[in-house]
């Protein structure tokens, strides 16, 4: 049964009845990766990875953001992280440590279940929610080396509980609690971003009223030919703000800055926050350029570890598809300059985003005005 949210998009999603974990187990430690997964572009591109980690990635401290003694300084740091990187580590975020431990354990246990048990929540044809492997147009597109569990988590009435695993038994409860805590973190960040942008808090928060939160829980099995596959092709996330949780301590996220790829070192206990496309592109009167290009949306991808599987949980916060807030960029920002991005509504944006060939920034670039 297709969920109401994806019904509205009216685009076809093809699911692939294949588990990457099974492919990984089949090829073992010496087999060949099936052609469908082999990424020739990895070799073709000049990829410089900063393994030395000497590039300093922004780290933002939530406890300072909300402490009147330090907030001004920390909000300025948050602003430059969003402008320069569109990406930062968020520490002291306030999400309960016990809950984090529990959800990590539940997710790990879910992916360890035998395939048949995971398939109890398999993605049906032309839907997005559930366990499986997303496969969008075009058909010749290479497959990512990942299994995933995708669920709409908020608003609560939009949940399709049929896709929420019942094994392990604590899974549903942990995800329910986590989804609330992380929604609160995202709201706090939006408020602080509004202060940094010098716009009315309500103008920014209004766009997210009744926001949709969905989670994409990614499992990237290890691969004996790790340099031939990609866990997640280069992309920018959809609309809103992504908060990424490292479920286990295996590195794999890479971000592109100034044309170079950088490996992101895990920071224990931190969440990775990505201010994503809407912040750069817009929110009209349903989806207009909110920050008029001031904040970046970071292009990123996930690479595979040859020895260890990696698990992450990405929580996406976006305006509801029914968002009809008014046409045009945030007025206060437009008074400071011309609109730099086209106006598109949430449904059109989401459709374009999902159906565009995954070429990193291509869909985002197509919305740019005057270039
Ligand atoms: O797993 C990662 O490191 C990245 C995941 C991601 O980019 C996504 O789910 O959108
Ligand atoms: Fe992403």
From TrEMBL:
GO molecular function, one term: metal ion binding
InterPro entries: DIOX_N, IPNS-like_FE2OG_OXY, IPNS-like_sf, Oxoglu/Fe-dep_dioxygenase_dom, Plant_2OG-oxidoreductases
Domain of life of the organism encoding this protein: Eukaryota
Cross-referenced SUPFAM superfamilies: Clavaminate synthase-like
Alphabetical keyword list: Iron, Metal-binding, Oxidoreductase
PANTHER family found in the cross-reference section: OXOGLUTARATE/IRON-DEPENDENT DIOXYGENASE
Protein's name according to its UniProt entry: Fe2OG dioxygenase domain-containing protein
Organism per entry: Oryza nivara
